Amino acid sequence: MSRTFNNTQPIYLQMIRRICRQVVRGELKAGDKLPSVREMAVQNGVNPNTVQRVYTELERLAIAETRRGLGSFITEDEERLKQLREDLKNEQIDTFIKDMSETGFSAEEIVEGVRQKLLITKAGRV
Amino acid sequence: MTEHIVSFSQVTKRYPGKLALNNVSFQLPRGRIIALVGPNGSGKSTILKLIAGLVRPSRGSVTVCGKKAGRRIAGEVAYLSELDALYPFFTVEETIKFNAGLFADFEHQKAQEILHFMHLEPDKKVRHLSKGNRGRLKILLTLSRRAPLLLLDEPLAGLDPLVRDSIIKSMISYLDLREQTVLMSTHEVSEVEPALDLVISLGNGQIKGMEEVEKIREQYGCSLVDWMKETLAK
After folding, report:
1. pTM of the entire structure?
2. How far apart, in whole angstroms, are the C-alpha atoms of residue B54 and residue B51?
3. By its UniProt entry, which PROSITE patterns does this protein fall under (chain B) (predicted)?
4. ipTM greater than 0.90
5. Which of A7, A13, A18, A37 to mutate: most B Cβ within 10 Å?
6. Which of the pair, B85 or B116, is modelled with greater confidence?
7. Which residues of B touch A (CB under 8 A)?
8. How far lies A57's CA from each of A46, A52, B14, in Å?
């Protein structure tokens, strides 16, 4: 049924994050229509008030816009979407670096480790 | 239209030999899905029955939609009993027609949509329905009403996961939260959690906690079940 949510974060934040990732992955493109509040609520098995909050927040973040009587759409502002892509990238990298540093790895070790891993993954795919 | 749909003011309810509710005061906002949680015998059903006007408070007052709770508010409250309240000799279709005749706000069109959604067979006798399908029919009858307040007493109890899922989904699909409010008692806390706005924790006839579900995650960083255990331990 509904995709599950973790228990430590508000559902509306988890949904915002999912939509942002879909945008970055290109599954949702500039100008794409988002499901109606009710559709989204049913798809995810969540409260319609929660979905409303997700859409309001996305609008506040300028990632989506609501057109009266038509629904919510991903913004057509490509600059904003580029920015979102950068933001998500930096966020992930920051978390990773913080984790690695706390575990005791130096900058050189991290870079070298990532480089090696990526080479292996790449080779493995071919 | 009053701001709160339900208001309890210092309500005590005694049954012979048992204090079911002990001096309880709270108010419920409109347009939300609210869960009443707590152990058996904590007073959940009593609260629902008081709101539905099926029992009277021993002390204090219960107000619903700005009116005193009583038999006259049946038109504004749709009540789903934890007991089986269907006539076994009716078919599904006859049960729907019977309810449409009982309640002026019953929407036949909506009932048909939910019937389809639930894959219920209209010609089947209630007597021959599985427990799961009787559960589905009960929620259908409640959701088909345009009443401003829906009271669901254990709508998920004793039903298999598929039925529980279809009941929660139908609730999300067919409720109109701009006009309607839901108060439901349940033990299936983690299952309904994503569908909830607000939760009230009851223990020993008293309110132990009342909080927005998203806030519980945000502030306490825990699930509803953890929060419930915490409030009840107080």
Report:
1. 0.86
2. 8
3. ABC_TRANSPORTER_2 (PS50893)
4. no
5. A7
6. B116
7. 31-33, 165, 168-169, 172-173, 175, 177, 194-197, 214-215, 217-218, 221-223, 226
8. 16, 9, 47
